[in-house]
Amino acid sequence: MRRTRTRRRARAVAAAVTAAAPLLGACGIQETDVIEAGGPASFQAFLNRDHDMLLFFRSPDGGLSPVIRTTEPSAGFGDEYVEPGSADQNSTDTAGPVPTEKAVLALLAGPREEDRAAGLSTSLPATRPGGTVEVEPPSNGKVTTRLPLALQDLNSTALHQLTCTIAYSHNTDGQVVVELTDQDGTSRTGTCGLAPRNSGEAPAEPGPSTR
Amino acid sequence: MTTGSGAGSGPGSGSATGFSPDRGPDPATGSGPDRGPGRSRIRAFGLRTRLLLAFLLVAAVSAGTTAALTYREARNAMLQTAQDTAVTSFRDQVQQTAFGLPLQGGEDLEAVLRDIARKGKPHPWVVFAEYGSIRASSGENPVSTVITPELRRAARANPHGSFERVVKDGVPYLTIAMPMVFKASPDSVLPSGLVLYAVMRMTDEQVNVDALLMAARDGALPGLAVALIPGLIAARSVLRPVRELRRAARSMGSGRLDTRIPVRGSDELADLARTFNESAAQLECSVRELREAEERARRFASDVSHELRTPLAGMLAVTEVLDEDADHLDADTARAVRLVSAETGKLAVLVEDLMEISRFDARAAELNTDEVDVAEAIRKTLHNRHWSDDRIRTELPDGIRARLDPRRFDIVIANLVGNALRHGSAPVTVSLRTETRSPSPPVLITEVMDSGPGIRPESLPHIFDRFYKADAARTRSAGSGLGLAITLENVKLHGGTIRAGNPPGGGAVFTVEIPLHAEGARG
């Protein structure tokens, strides 16, 4: 009798202590989980659509990093672009945006010194110079590009690089479906989908999908 | 017990009720009422402790809960403000900055970062930039050790600003991750792959939080101390009546029936005190009535024996004369005269015994002790009664001396031996020895054993009762029927005990135990 009463009392005390413990326990400043706080920050990137193009290279963590490359200057780099003459002819007027063919050729030429300095690389194979890129005029939101490559040899990052470069070259929002074809007739279709989700409709999954 | 005999701390207080004397030899158990006072007043789980604990617990729970909740809310609000300020100002700062793509590491980048870091709010922070394989910071190390992989992963996985509070080596840090985007077109942005991190020490916040904690504690602890005061007052208000009640109950138990408790207030304890007083009054009343009735009865017996003694004295004188002259009368008359003479003698003995018992009942019996040689005293007793023939055997070692009342001890021995000779059969053995039992003083043990059939078991408990006849068939015996009762009273007067029993060898044995030094006995 007496023992049960003592035990009951002990249990009540234990309950009180248990109830008080969380109140007393959280003293000081505690760690937290990762908490989301608003959207990203946008910064000034000096992107001029008239003579800058966006190339997408592979960053060390496996993602894609856009790189702004200016077309204008430097005769020294001239032969990296396919025949200045034909480029000039393709881009009929200089006021317009940089032609897609040029951007794709620049991408295929690989990262430059400053890109490599930042750890950027490409998953595309080195192409022999002189290959041609043909861009068909867009039809119902789809851009078809013919490439001097074998698409079957490319991994998803390489395809993504191509898709994004073409998409952003063609459309300032990058919201366009890109179809890649090679000489063998193989084709891949996809969207870039790098834009943050808050920019509008739900984007397609990054990476091209096989037709 | 007559009025005024008071505390009654002695073996006699038990026998105060009625004419049935104590049948067992238990003079030591009468001292019950004095058992309590040794207990300490403050106990481990007494009422006072429990009340104090209850008050303290209530105060602790309320003060602790209030303090803890207040503290928590204030701390959270403070941290939230600091975090929001930091995140907002970090975003504002970096949005005013321009970067080229690809990012160029080196001095320029570090200068930009330092510029951002300087404008940190609410405290300066360290800014880290991660882009591709470039790692730069406004501080000394290009890579922070505080930023967790989880934060990095979150910043890379989805383009949202995010923060995490980290405690490293006891110092709390706020780490903010800000993935950077740039405008690819007027209405679309593109992740740049650049993530800026800000790491801010929250030392000021910690100081403030600690101050809050101190304030909460400093508020709660005096509250506990203050709670002790009503606790003590409540305990006192309960304990004092309880203590008074206990004292009064003990005082009543020791015979002071006129004890009353002062009734204060109108609470339950006052009711209890009032009930106690009423019960005590009723008890006192009935005890008084009982005592008066007993007193009347005792005085009646005493008066009767006194009244009888005077005519009996005269009758004895006459019967002695008649006895002497009986030889000259004719046979029938002589027999009648002798019968009258014998019965008158018995009557005289009975009256004497009655008076002796009355003196015991009235507590008028006194003990006149003297240092005697016990063996010698017993031999004298036997000799005076002419019991020196071979009906009596003695085992009386010489040299045992004790403080006794010689007259009363003589009565004890004579009654026991006479009883043995009357109801048992010869030979009767009287033995004497002393015995020492460690906690109590040494005792003198006198045994009187006969060779008769022994006492019937059903008679044993009543053998010392007044007018108890062990042999129901023999209604008239030679004794007065008070002999053993008087013996018991005499032994008790010496502070000793007496018991009767049947030893295995047959016969009946009466054992008297008297302390060797009877000063402690009442007298």
UniProtKB/TrEMBL annotation, chain A:
The keyword Signal applies. It comes from the Bacteria. Residues 1-25 form the signal peptide. The keyword Metal-binding does not apply. Residues 74-97, 114-142, 185-211 are annotated as: Disordered. Keywords: Signal. This is GerMN domain-containing protein. It comes from Streptomyces curacoi.
